[in-house]
């Protein structure tokens, strides 16, 4: 991804903060709608359709065929696209087994790790400790009724790993090839995951009556937030952007509660809040790096 531009003084920062909040709400609403379609498409089918339609829509907007990357410089885009595809598949696999807010919180370990590795401040060790406490509270080590599905937790952590790789390779691809790298990456991710969804659900993926709902997921989860984030990054400092994105786990938990009736225990809410605080504490110390949020 490209570095954030210096903040602009031509418009109120509150406008761009509001746009970023809309982007965050859009991503989590899209995830909630996607989960509601799992009984029909399954996690694999939903990931395949979301990536495919997102690739089509973003490609029509960015028209990446006008700037085909040279053969010798495609490696970052290929790795970016593969990371994007696996990240989406693993996240939806987690979402089919554990609540939305918890899946987002566990997945957020990826960008949090990237931010911490980039920092050299002593206080960041405290943020690491707080994040670890939050993650431990979410791990399925409790034998009580609130224990989480271990496979769902593992999938969320895998999604976090590939979110971290997505950030690393996305920044390299964006610096080398500009915004069109997002379209190329989405197409590569779709080509990787679509056969998986097709093998799992077959012709059910093409149910005409459900295509508008799938298109809504693609728009809410990828196209709208991506567009808004590109606008915001031109006007807000990277530190402010990263801090706002740290709210994603809490917003995900609220979206799960309101749209899916997923009720979390007090301990799970405490864990999510701890991860949010750790993420905010870490990102406020960053200088120029930003943490993109594709889910």
Descriptive report:
The structure is a single chain. The protein has 295 residues and is mostly helical. The protein has one domain. The chain has twelve helices and no strands. The protein has helices spanning 13-36, 38-62, 75-95, 100-107, 109-118, 124-138, 150-177, 180-201, 211-233, 238-245, 248-260, 266-283.
Give me the strand/helix succession. Answer: HHHHHHHHHHHH
Task: Detail the poorly predicted runs.
Answer: 1-9, 288-292
Helix and strand content put the structural class at mainly alpha
The coarse silhouette is globular
Query: From the structure provided, what is the oligomeric state, counting identical versus distinct chains?
Result: single chain
Helix content class: over 70%
Mean pLDDT: 81
Q: How many β-strands, per DSSP?
A: 0
CA-CA gap between termini: 16 Å
Domain unit count: 1
Calculate Rg over CA atoms: 18 Å
Strand content: under 5%
Largest sheet: none
What is the helix tally? 12
InterPro entries: AA-Vitamin_Transporters, EamA_dom, EmrE-like
Domain EamA: 151-282
GO cellular component, one term: membrane
Subcellular location: Membrane
């Amino acid at each position: 991804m490209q570095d954030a531009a210096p903040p602009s003084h031509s418009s109120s920062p509150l406008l761009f903060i509001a746009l970023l909040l809309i982007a965050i709400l859009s991503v989590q609403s899209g995830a909630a709608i996607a989960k509601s379609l799992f009984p029909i498409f399954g996690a694999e089918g939903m990931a395949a359709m979301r990536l495919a339609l997102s690739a089509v829509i973003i490609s029509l907007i960015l028209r990446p065929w006008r700037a085909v990357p040279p053969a010798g410089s495609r490696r970052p885009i290929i790795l970016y696209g593969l990371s994007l595809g696996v990240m989406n598949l693993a996240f939806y696999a987690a979402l089919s087994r554990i609540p939305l807010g918890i899946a987002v919180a566990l997945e957020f370990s990826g960008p949090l790790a990237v931010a911490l590795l980039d920092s050299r401040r002593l206080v960041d060790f405290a943020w690491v400790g707080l994040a670890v406490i939050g993650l431990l509270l979410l791990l399925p080590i409790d034998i009580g009724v609130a224990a989480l599905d271990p496979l769902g937790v593992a999938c969320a952590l895998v999604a976090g790993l590939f979110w971290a790789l997505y950030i690393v390779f996305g920044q390299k691809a964006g610096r080398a090839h500009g915004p069109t790298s997002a379209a190329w990456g989405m197409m590569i991710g779709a080509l990787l995951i679509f056969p998986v969804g097709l093998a799992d659900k077959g012709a059910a993926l093409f149910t005409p009556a459900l295509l508008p709902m799938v298109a809504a997921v693609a728009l809410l989860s990828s196209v709208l937030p991506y567009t808004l984030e590109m606008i915001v990054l031109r006007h807000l400092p990277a530190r402010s952007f990263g801090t706002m994105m740290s709210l994603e786990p809490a917003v995900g938990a609220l979206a799960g509660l309101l749209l899916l009736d997923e009720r979390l225990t007090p301990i799970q809410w405490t864990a999510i809040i701890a991860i949010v605080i750790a993420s905010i504490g870490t990102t406020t110390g960053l200088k120029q790096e930003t943490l993109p949020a594709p889910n």
